[in-house]
Amino acid sequence: MSCNDEASIAAVAVRNEDTQFDFVDGLCKTRGWCAPTFTLDGMHCPFCKNPDTKVVDTRVGEDGYSIRRRRECPKCSRRFTTVETATLMVIKRSGNVEPFNRDKVITGVRKACQGRPIKEEDLKQLGQRVEEDLRARGLAQVPSDEVGRAILGPLRDLDEVAYMRFASVYQEFNNLEDFERAIKELRDQESKEGNESHD
């Protein structure tokens, strides 16, 4: 994939368990140690800075959206791992653009789930469903409103009370009529799903 492709690339080179380097669109965003700039054609060795490294193993990540590459430097013979992912960008209402963050989705939904019998694993699965939905659209950028809409379906399936809480904030309910309309939509959806299960 080249820099001109629609989806941008993010990569993380891991020297050891304690040291990570973030590369987003060719810029090094570090945590403690800075390696030379990542390019799509190759990766500088984080140990000796040799620009010529070779891939010795490639595996697709469990999520299906990332590729792990084991690399070796022919100069110092040391190995390191890179993780390449297609970056999904979110367009905020302010016009700012930032990478999609599944943890932000989970944090936002967690507030609506307070006091409900929902496990942390359920929230993680919801976050994964939202990301899969957004990525399946084949777009490099999605409006933040679309992220909210993508949350509503999985959250309704998970817990209707949490769904109503989230929807009331996301859809800016102003009065009882808004709640009544949302409840009616929930009941209509349940009725429709019940009829489909009997067919």
Automatic annotation (TrEMBL):
* Residues of the ATP-cone domain: 88-178
Specify the residue ranges making up the unnamed zinc fingers: 45-76
Keyword Repeat among record annotations: no
Q: Which UniProt keywords apply?
A: ATP-binding, Coiled coil, DNA-binding, Metal-binding, Nucleotide-binding, Repressor, Transcription, Transcription regulation, Zinc, Zinc-finger
- Its Gene Ontology biological processes? negative regulation of DNA-templated transcription
Its annotated function is as follows: Negatively regulates transcription of bacterial ribonucleotide reductase nrd genes and operons by binding to NrdR-boxes.
Name recorded for this polypeptide: Transcriptional repressor NrdR
Organism field: Bifidobacterium tissieri
Q: Which gene encodes it?
A: nrdR
